[in-house]
Design a protein that fits this description.
By secondary structure, this protein is of the alpha/beta class. 24% of the residues lie in helices and 19% in strands. It is globular and about 30 Å long.
Amino acid sequence: MADLLFLFSQRPHSSIYPQEALDAALAGSAFADIAILFLDAGVLQLLDTKPPYPLSPRKAFQRGFAAFSDYDIHGVYCCETAFRQFQLEDKSLIIQPTLVTRSEIKTHLASAKQVLSF
């Protein structure tokens, strides 16, 4: 059971929230047991994409996901439905999350002490 469950549900570079979610999860790992759940369009954050235009104020932050294990974040999950909907392939992902069903997502949400949605 995670103390903090972070929900990553927005497309990369759609706003500052995806990058802030990563920063918050890494910072929070110093104080609590963290789990990450990618759902809906947030699963696209697992791809190594560039900002939509060269002078974007947002940086390509997704490579920071590779640091999860360094920060003792081992519960990294991805909604299986969204994974299939966006036709993702394991070989194209920055990290390899555990695919979870909708019922497993409900279990994670119910067992987390706090849920933070970005």
